[in-house]
């Protein structure tokens, strides 16, 4: 057995506000402790490439007679394991050694690898591919609107995508989302609220970068469904009804998750502070923050309060709900509108990893399951995209391998549904089928808006 103790001497550093967080020696000790426990357990070997990489490197040192466990692992070993982690969080959910399970080991494999990425960025700088993928809102602002046709033409060119891959490190094979000719905020600014919107209350919609610039049909459907259920929808920067005296001016920005993928703590923190300042007045007026993307929702609920360690961030996080989770809550209160116009047939519902990581089950499947003439089949398999990881050329083929069970699982359905836009892109590429967000499918069942 290894000489590494299973119990930490003190709780692991999980926030940059802890002076140990960016201290390399403290991190290396925590990585070795974590890897030792994982090597002894091996339950998560099939989740991603990190675990086979970890086990092989520990086994190498044991077989060479230089270690009894993970104590001889080096900086290069840590990097190799970290590079294979796409932050799906599934290992944390299943791990029996976490704080959530009241275990003394206090293990958090994805969080310690996120910390490794931050320390590596401090030491080596942030790679170009992470700098680019870390700014989806900036890319959206530059590529959507009037220039969208040109941007989409460039993205459709295999030759230009190959050149782009060489320069940026973004895979030429990964199907990047098209740019929207009309961003969601432009639509919302001209949108007239449905009759009855507001009789049940008010909510704030976090449309996400992809919803704003790439898939505006998703937040548009969310607005229609929320209004159909009696809620007035507010979007900071677009809601003229908000009183400027208690609602700061400005629009929401990216949740910051892509910055965490690259270890850019400064950019992440700046975005979180900006968003918290805009959302807090709404929260204090009793409004829920409804999020249409599970990765953004996870980041807002779990990472914002952990990284900022402020009362304001915790307050906003506590008011944040996933779009379909919000509708499930309405159903429990007997407030969900059940007047459907049409059934949806057989649905293959992809259970997104970052929804499962929030431990809220499969809310989209539960809501769509109440639609008449609809059969929902849940597919609990990872897309191996999870943020920006799967977009990188270095990981594209590995991602395809780990996503193969998902690709097979959704085949043959009348409708494929996923809360995760990026997972949807993977399925579009591999299956050649259209993938809807569950709120789009629900809007279709209600008979709201254009047919998806």
Automatic annotation (TrEMBL):
Signal peptide: none annotated. Keywords: Iron, Iron-sulfur, Metal-binding, Oxidoreductase. The keyword Protein transport does not apply. One of its GO terms (molecular function) is oxidoreductase activity. Residues 1-20 are annotated as: Disordered. Its EC number is 1.1.99.5. It is an enzyme of class 1 (oxidoreductase). It comes from the Bacteria. InterPro entries: 4Fe4S_Fe_S_CS (IPR017900). SUPFAM superfamilies: 4Fe-4S ferredoxins. This is GlpC protein. It comes from Sorangium cellulosum (strain So ce56). The gene is glpC.
């Amino acid at each position: 057995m290894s000489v590494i103790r299973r119990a930490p001497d003190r709780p692991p550093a999980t926030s940059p506000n802890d002076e140990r967080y960016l201290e390399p020696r403290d991190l290396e000790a925590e990585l070795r402790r974590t890897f030792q426990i994982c090597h002894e357990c091996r339950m998560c070997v099939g989740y991603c490439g990190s675990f086979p990489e970890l086990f092989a490197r520990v086994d190498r040192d044991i077989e060479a007679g230089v270690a009894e466990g993970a104590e001889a692992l080096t900086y290069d070993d840590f990097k190799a394991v970290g590079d294979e982690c796409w932050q799906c969080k599934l290992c944390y959910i299943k791990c029996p050694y976490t704080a959530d399970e009241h275990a003394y080991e206090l293990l958090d494999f994805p969080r310690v690898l996120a910390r490794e990425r931050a320390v590596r960025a401090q030491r080596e700088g942030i790679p170009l591919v992470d700098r680019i993928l870390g700014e989806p809102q900036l890319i959206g602002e530059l590529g959507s609107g009037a220039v969208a046709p040109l941007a989409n033409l460039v993205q459709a060119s295999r030759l230009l995508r190959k050149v782009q891959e060489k320069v940026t490190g973004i895979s030429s094979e990964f199907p990047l989302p098209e740019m929207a000719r009309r961003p969601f905020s432009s639509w919302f600014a001209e949108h007239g609220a449905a009759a009855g919107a507001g009789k049940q209350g008010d909510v704030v919609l976090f449309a996400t970068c992809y919803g704003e610039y790439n898939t505006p049909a998703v937040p548009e459907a969310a607005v229609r469904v929320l209004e159909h259920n009696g809620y007035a929808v507010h979007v900071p920067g677009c809601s003229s009804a908000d009183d400027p005296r208690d609602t700061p001016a400005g629009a929401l920005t990216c949740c910051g998750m892509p910055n965490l993928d690259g270890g850019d703590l400064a950019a992440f923190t700046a975005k979180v502070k900006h968003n918290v300042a805009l959302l807090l007045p709404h929260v204090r007026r009793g409004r829920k923050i409804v999020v249409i993307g599970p990765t953004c929702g996870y980041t807002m609920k779990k990472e914002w309060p952990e990284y900022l360690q402020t009362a304001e961030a915790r307050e906003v996080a506590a008011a944040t709900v996933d779009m379909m989770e919000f509708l499930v809550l309405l159903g429990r209160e007997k407030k969900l509108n059940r007047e459907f116009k049409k059934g949806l047939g057989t649905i293959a519902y992809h259970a997104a990893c970052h929804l499962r990581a929030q431990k809220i089950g499969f809310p989209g499947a539960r809501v769509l399951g109440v639609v008449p003439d609809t059969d929902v089949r849940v597919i609990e398999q990872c897309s191996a995209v999870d943020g920006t990881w799967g977009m990188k050329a270095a990981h594209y083929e590995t991602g395809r391998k780990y996503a193969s069970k998902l690709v097979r699982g959704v085949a043959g359905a009348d409708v494929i549904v996923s809360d995760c836009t990026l997972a949807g892109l993977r399925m579009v590429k591999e299956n050649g089928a259209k993938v809807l967000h569950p709120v789009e499918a629900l809007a279709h069942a209600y008979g709201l808006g254009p047919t998806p």
